[in-house]
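Give me the fold.
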Amino acid sequence: MNIIVYSKDNCVWCDRAKNLLDSVEFSFEEIDLSNDNDRKEFYKKVGEGVSTVPQIYIDNERIGGFPQLVNWFEENGF
């Protein structure tokens, strides 16, 4: 499973998402979007009204933020 977490510094929801993934021992790549310009470019690229981090991708599919990650875990029996 390939997991990417787009996050930024001082982000409680980013930390929660990473802690959840760590708690089930899922490895993931973290991409730091603490730089405002980098984050704005990311939002433009994603589209779909995305304007927050974290954004989590699993096997190249955008799951969304922390609440959507929790839902994904529930739907997939984790």
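The helical segments are 12-23, 36-46, 66-75.
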